[in-house]
Amino acid sequence: MGDRQVNNLEKGYKAILEFVDRMEEITQLQDRVDITSNISQIWRVFSAEIQNAIHLDGCALFLVDETSQEFVLKHADPISIAESVPKEVDLQIACGMFAWVIKRRKPALVPALFLKNNKTLIMLPLVTIRHILGMVVVVTSIDESLITHENIRVLGMLAKQCALVMDNFLLYDRLRKEHEHLQRAQHQILQAEKLASIGRLTAGASHEILNPLNILSGYVQLLQMHPTLDDKSKQYLDVIQDQVERIAGIVNSLYRFSRPIESRKETFSIHEVIDRVVRLFGHERRNDRIQWNLQVETDLPLLYGNPDAIAQVFVILFSNARDAMPDGGTLTLEARFLPDSAKPDRGWSGLVRIRVADTGIGIREEDLGKIFDPFFTTKQHQNGTGLGLSLAYGILQEHEGTIAVESRLNEGTVFTITLPVHIGEVREAVAPVLDIPNS
Amino acid sequence: MVPQHLKNVIQRINDLPTLPRTILRISELVNNPKTSAKDLAKVITDDQVLTARLLKLVNSSFYGFPQKISTVTGAIVLLGFDAIRNLLLTTSVFDLFSNKYKANKELQEKFWDHSLGCAIGAKAIGGFLKSEQVEELFVAGLLHDIGKIVEMMIMPQEFEQAVQKTRDEPITIYQAEEQVLGFTHTEVGRLLAEKWNLPTKLSHIIAHHHHPIKAGRFVDETAVVHVADIFCRALGLGSGGDERMTPLDMEVWGRFNFSSQVIDYLLQEIDQTFSDISSVLVATKAAEHSI
User: Do B64 and A107 touch (CB under 8 A)?
Assistant: First the structure.
């Protein structure tokens, strides 16, 4: 064997060892990628690896946006290329190069069109069997004809790994979101079921209680008319009568809550309803310390439903706001028409959104999930029945509306109601002038 | 170790033309990881015929490149080293076998049609499976029956006998070869592939395309060619020597699990592409002759 041959063999042997080393390095990627938890972290690992593999000016990650289906720049290393590379990519997309590389699913070297000084682009498509994720664009000053087979193969392998890892991450992320969504939906169904079963139960029970209560009340009244009654007995009977009436009140509202709301529906002005309830409240003495802040759009559209039921919702919300502000505060009521949230498929042209905000004590976070549950109350000592918000919830459901709450302890609570506006309901031409109490 | 019954064939394969030195040199370069496009381009541009052909082919609709490629270096960097090697290899193989042997002219043409159909089929199936190696699969499909061409050339009478046997008896060409020649085109094909130093993957596919499970780490690629072969026979594209269906390997078929809609789609795709490409090829050939 000649010296030259031995020399060649040694060279080849060395080259193989080098390549094996490279491969080993790449497989160690796995460990570093394993601990990543988002696309940026994954990119950081691969970007470092790409910079190891070839001498470059920079590299950029483009991902396909799910909604627009366009290539969007996600990361650029170094950040200084973030401006020029998208311009380059736009040109490459325009001339069909991008699509060609993606379709061929293999790395390609492309002369730069926008970047000056004979830069070369190495396009590494990020594709898996299932998805086209995007493209890594490497910018280098090495002349395209001097980049070796090995360079391209290593970069190709990196891109493949990167695509797999990102695809797995995206799939996992989507699964996680769907799972959360399902859990929320399940929770809502449970809530609705609970409300429904309590409703059936109480409808029957409250009727049974009201009957004997009426008899009780009748006899108390008879007793009160008795001429030989001493003062003390009269006083006791008054207390009994008061408490009987209270029981009747509680049972009545229970009954109303459980019974399907009367389906007497009509076209009504939400303006008038708000006006009526605000006036009613303004007249009550115990509401004197409330500052009213009314921001009601003047030309809200007419709504379809039961105005008395909607009025009741406001009574409930205002009462709660008042109770939350024992030392006074500001009660803000804001009503707006949102045509953008229209759902024409359901016959809606938009929503009326009403927000009722107080500056009161707020609701504890652990209670927020329970406030729409029947019998849940924080006002045991103030004769709360825990039925108000359940009732409001039921009324809004009946009207295809929603109610939501946000609260900060010691800062205040905001209830947001939406009610659908049915297509064809016109906007009120002239708004009734609101009589704002104590303002 | 070469089996005894093939010794005779080997002797005669040695008489077959070898691949041009340039192609062998290119293969060597592509196998070396330190090769750059510049090194490869230098070897190619030394051969003017090869250069002209390369540029014509890379600009054909097969690669569907959006712009015109005007330099060899441009072609190499854009398509990659393997693609260039495969492309030049294919054209050289075509060169070696066309026009030089006049025997069995009609059969040869039908045979090339079958090979082209199988190449298109392998590419279509690969594309459907989102494989990254559709171009390699195309070459593999084109060369999978290369052993038959060798048989036609070095033992035309015996091969004709085998073909006749498939007409008289209910057997496939594969079985007839075994009976008449004592070996099959897959073994001969493999010998040629090794003599020509074709990539290992190609020689495995050629050797095992009737029994892909035996192809070791290339079983997936071989399976694609196996199924493409059968699709082409079903479509009646060209002829593999006999007019019979080769048995479908059920284990391989099970791996794909194609639904009937997918099969319909693939068959249609293959049929359509075949008629498109073969008309283009005829035109290209005519043009080349007129140069």
Answer: no
